[in-house]
Design a protein that fits this description.
The protein is α+β, with helices and mostly antiparallel strands. It is built from four helices and five strands; from the N terminus they run βαβββαααβ. The protein binds protoporphyrin IX containing FE. The site of protoporphyrin IX containing FE has 18 residues, from helix 2, helix 3 and helix 4.
Amino acid sequence: VQGQKMDVSEEELAKHNKIDDGWLAIRGQVYNVTPYMEYHPGGAEELMKGLGIDATDLFNEVHRWVNVESMLEKCHIGPLQKGDPLAF
Ligand code: HEM
């Protein structure tokens, strides 16, 4: 449902590492980039390097000025939960 956000663990993020089910995190937020795959000007292969991981560094190396927050607004899943939630 549009507008409902959910926290995503690094473990959950890692499961979505395929072209037809691909999530990545940039600047602490997780996005489903599968719908964007065919539109990425740098190509699907480049975008796929970041699937299932925190792709902030990869992203920043190429185009830190690109406004992901706005471009992927409709693909926004929610904040990346850092660290092991079971550790205390
Ligand atoms: C262009 C890589 C994620 C938007 C490019 C290019 C590369 C690249 C190599 C240059 C293509 C060229 O000049 O021929 C990557 C990598 C990513 C990533 C490694 C993550 C793992 C994203 C995301 C978005 C995005 C998440 C936005 C939703 C763009 C745009 C361009 C571009 C708008 C063309 C404009 C520009 O170069 O300033 N990308 N990209 N990219 N990418 Fe990405």
